[in-house]
Automatic annotation (TrEMBL):
<keyword id="KW-0505">Motor protein</keyword>
<dbReference type="GO" id="GO:0007018">
    <property type="term" value="P:microtubule-based movement"/>
</dbReference>
<dbReference type="InterPro" id="IPR001752">
    <property type="entry name" value="Kinesin_motor_dom"/>
</dbReference>
<feature type="domain" description="Kinesin motor">
    <location>
        <begin position="1"/>
        <end position="102"/>
    </location>
</feature>
<dbReference type="Pfam" id="PF00225">
    <property type="entry name" value="Kinesin"/>
</dbReference>
<dbReference type="GO" id="GO:0005874">
    <property type="term" value="C:microtubule"/>
</dbReference>
<comment type="similarity">
    <text>Belongs to the TRAFAC class myosin-kinesin ATPase superfamily. Kinesin family.</text>
</comment>
<keyword id="KW-0963">Cytoplasm</keyword>
<dbReference type="GO" id="GO:0007019">
    <property type="term" value="P:microtubule depolymerization"/>
</dbReference>
<dbReference type="InterPro" id="IPR027417">
    <property type="entry name" value="P-loop_NTPase"/>
</dbReference>
<keyword id="KW-0206">Cytoskeleton</keyword>
<dbReference type="InterPro" id="IPR036961">
    <property type="entry name" value="Kinesin_motor_dom_sf"/>
</dbReference>
<dbReference type="GO" id="GO:0008017">
    <property type="term" value="F:microtubule binding"/>
</dbReference>
<protein>
    <recommendedName>
        <fullName>Kinesin motor domain-containing protein</fullName>
    </recommendedName>
</protein>
<dbReference type="InterPro" id="IPR027640">
    <property type="entry name" value="Kinesin-like_fam"/>
</dbReference>
<dbReference type="GO" id="GO:0005524">
    <property type="term" value="F:ATP binding"/>
</dbReference>
<keyword id="KW-0493">Microtubule</keyword>
Amino acid sequence: LYSLVADEVFARVAEAGAKGTLLVVRAGFFEIYRGKCFDLLNKKKRVEVMEDERNQQQLVGLHWCTPTSAEQLLELLDRSERTTKATAQNAHSSRSHAILQL
């Protein structure tokens, strides 16, 4: 799924560029594990969830990257380290929810 999204996002960036509009993609990737948020692009540092003045949730301390291609975005995701543990059915099973924000 990440590959399909990455290809589509950067195809649209290219289309906009052909029409003279510059778009920049920013990516943040974090996991929610046992009720806490951890930055998957910055050594699993803890990220705080805070509410801003408009009552919207913000992730304070989340590291943002600016990939310029689908390949760069997928490389970022490959370097991330999700929390995994063995289960009765799998030797390596993800134990968290991962969220990619673009």
